[in-house]
Amino acid sequence: MGNSKSQLTKSELQYYKELTYLTESEIQYAFKRFKNLQPRILNKDKNARIPVDLIKRMPEFQNNPFKERICELFSSTNDDTWSFEDFLDMAPVFNTDSPADKKAEYAFSIYDGDGDGYLSRGDLKDLINLLTGSDNLDEQDIDDVIDKVMDEADIDKDGMLSPGEFKHVIMKCPDFARSFTIRI
């Protein structure tokens, strides 16, 4: 365990501090958490990639309905593995001290399931189903919720939410930044 501090060099810690909103001790703790997912391999090679399924099994992700999308979004490759740098890209986004506007950008990307740069009615339907369980609301209830969201947030009335429209609305929610947090 004491190994985790010495595995990251001072220059690596400084580099990671400059790229994230994390302190040196938070970076070291993140490395410790990451390394504990597969210590045998990461003790030998701190730059090794580990199966993303290990990330998904972390207690913080087990019941998160967005874990698949989060893991996809922060992976630097398409091979279902993560490096510590992938893990470190994700950690500050969900940190309590991260700026709300940065959280809003990532929330949009997570909710944009088809990756087309807009939140369409389909994206919103998928989002509602993920949050409520697909059998809990009937189609009319889902359509009513989507209509209400579009009435409130779709400023240009084009039938979808742009990143700017989403950010405009979400930044008005006082609890957003606090609730868009995963304690790593």
Overall strand count: 2
Return the structural class: mainly alpha
List the secondary-structure elements in sequence, H or E: HHHHEHHHEHHHHHH
Q: Overall pLDDT, averaged?
A: 91
Question: What percent strand?
Answer: under 5%
Largest sheet: 2 strands, antiparallel
Shape: elongated
User: In order across it, which strands form the biggest sheet?
Assistant: 1-2
Radius of gyration: 18 Å
End-to-end C-alpha gap: 17 Å
Q: Approximately how much helix is present in the residues?
A: 55-70%
Low-confidence stretches at least 5 residues in length (pLDDT < 50)? 1-5
Number of helices: 13
How would you explain this protein's 3D organization?
With 184 residues, the chain is mostly helical. The protein has helices at residues 3-7, 10-19, 24-35, 39-44, 52-56, 59-62, 67-74, 84-90, 100-111, 121-132, 139-153, 163-170, 176-179, and strands spanning 50-51, 81-82. Strands 1-2 form a two-stranded antiparallel ribbon. It is elongated. Residues 1-5 have low confidence and may be disordered.
Core attributes:
184 residues; mainly alpha; disordered N terminus; two-stranded antiparallel sheet; single chain
